[in-house]
Amino acid sequence: MGTIDLHFGDDAITGEMGQMGQILPVDMTLEAPTFGDGQALEMVIAGLPLARGYRTTLRQFDVMAQKVRPFQLEVTTSESASVTAGPFETYVLQLAPLDGDESGRGTMHVMQTAPHYTVKAEFKMPATMGGGAMTMELVEVGE
pTM surpassing 0.70? Predict the structure, then answer.
């Protein structure tokens, strides 16, 4: 297990990553606004003005590769999605990497009503993590 302590500023990402007694500093200068990956990206998406046909480009910091990756996000359609937490009306988002590396490519189903919480998602994993797919599903909605 390891620890990651990152600070996202307007023009840099700084901090450190540690594992098994080794510390790796992170000090990356940013050319444009950049978001974290995983749950940090989900929070950004939750606040976007999503609608059918919406499209934008996002820059995401890949922690393991320590590089900024550009992605195109597009709302392609809407549909009902049933998961453990129940049925939801969702927008279907396609997340496509723009750097030639197919890891991170995915499909997300997010609630049509804002905030656009993720109901289910599937992403292609990097080769360093086996190259398979990661699937996530909402199992409970709290109050």
Answer: yes
Q: Give per-residue pLDDT as tens, 50-100.
A: 999 999 999 999 888 889 999 999 999 999 999 999 999 999 999 999 999
What average pLDDT score do residues 6-33 get? 92
- 15, 26 in Cβ contact below 8 A? yes
The whole-angstrom separation of Cα 103 and Cα 96 is 9
Contact 84, 140 (CB under 8 A): yes
Q: Is 62 exposed, middle or buried (0-12, 13-18, 19+ CB in 10 A)?
A: middle
Dist CA 87 CA 54 (whole Å): 23
Closest of 129, 121, 74, 137 to residue 103, by C-alpha? 129
**Count of other CB atoms within 10 angstroms of residue 27:** 10
* Cα–Cα dist 4/62, whole Å: 12
Say if residue 128's pLDDT is above 80: no
Structural domain spans, the chain: 1-30, 32-137
How crowded is residue 115: how many other Cβ atoms within 10 Å of its Cβ? 12
